[in-house]
Amino acid sequence: MHGSLAALQPRPPRKILYLTLDVSWPPPPPSTLKRYKPRWDLAVDLGCGTGQVTIELTLFKKVIGVDNGLDSSQLMTVDQSSPFGGETGSSPTMAWLMANPEGSRFEFVNFNAEDLSFLAPSTVDLVIAAQATHWFDYSRLWPELDRVLRPNGTVAFWVYAEFRLPAYPSLTPPITDYAQGTDPATSLGPHWQRPGRTISENHLLDVPEPSWGKTDQVFFTRSHYPDLPSPHLVILRTKTTWGTLLTYFRS
What is the DSSP secondary-structure string of 115-147? Predict the structure, then answer.
């Protein structure tokens, strides 16, 4: 991932993490949370990229970040002061891992999401993918997850939709045209990798169901996408400046 773009990736809302772990929101006190233990042995983050979501899974005894393009320069911690969750520059994720007691429980491996051969059968409690789901080959991934997941294990994937400026609703159409249009001179649309980008733009509705179970889909889109069923309130928000927004466009 390009460094500038990675620096502007939004942090996952805490509600997503607690929904994934099936814990109430707002979060209970840490002492209560740690007593909530359906199974906290092994979590796997597919397409972990910078590792900024991977390192949120501190409740697990072991956490493995998986990415087929992994290198030390890609792993980074998150600057909490940045409106988009920017990188700290010279502080890699490994620095965070070494500075925190939980660090020894994290591992990062260079593998495809569809090849988890380094994992024994029925050993994984949670598999997540944050903004990577649309790149997977599900004809291979679902059987592999069926192999490694423990009974009653959890798979949780999420992506975020195209951003909008609530105070300036008239800007939504040009933002959408810029991101999803068809003119290669004025839009990013023709330059995205397909079909991955299309799957993401369609809110993962095109992801096939696994043969071994049915998935639940939850949409935090309010009324912005009226065709989506049972939408919830938007939970991914940030305050930023016009300058930072321009940097995001240029990335």
Answer: --TTS-TT-EEEEEEES-GGG--HHHHHHHHHH
